[in-house]
Amino acid sequence: MNKELGNRIRQIRIGKNFNPKDVADAVGILDTSYSKIEREGTNSVATLLKIAEVLQVEPAVFFSVSNHSTPTTIKNKNDYSFATKHDIYELGLLIRKLSKELIEFRDEVNLKLNTKPTPPKKGM
Question: What tens digit of pLDDT does each residue of 17-35 get?
Fold first, then answer.
């Protein structure tokens, strides 16, 4: 999946006429690191979210595998009919990882502020 993710990021960048150096600079990483992401993908949720922001797309479009639906042709950002079950599964994993990172960040901030952390809701 990671190489597919990298290819998808490259397709979107090219489709939006961004050059790799500009994206790398905006994300705050080295050109070589960004190039590696386009070749091999990334496991960093934070980096993926930054790339999506720079490319002005919803992160879900990185998981589209259909050739006929690209971020420039999707009219309704809530139309995820182009996503496969595997894409949705991968997106679920990404959301779980992001949720865990956000909870850890919140707890770290609470610790620094010397406050009691809020317990997570059931089901998290």
Answer: 999 999 999 999 999 999 9
Structure-block tokens of residue 19 = 């050059």
Q: Give percent of the chain above pLDDT 90.
A: 26
What is the amino acid identity at position 100?
A: K
- Measured CA to CA, the distance from residue 106 to residue 103 in angstroms comes to 5
Write out the CATH class of domain 2-84: mainly alpha
Question: Exposed e or buried b for every residue in 76-115, given b needs 16+ CB within 10 A?
Answer: eeeebebbeeebeebbeebeeeeeeeeeeeeeeeeeeeee
Query: What separation in angstroms does the CA of 111 have from each of 55, 88, 99, 105, 116?
Result: 34, 34, 18, 10, 7
Flag whether pLDDT at 73 surpasses 60: no
Report yes or no on whether pTM surpasses 0.70: no
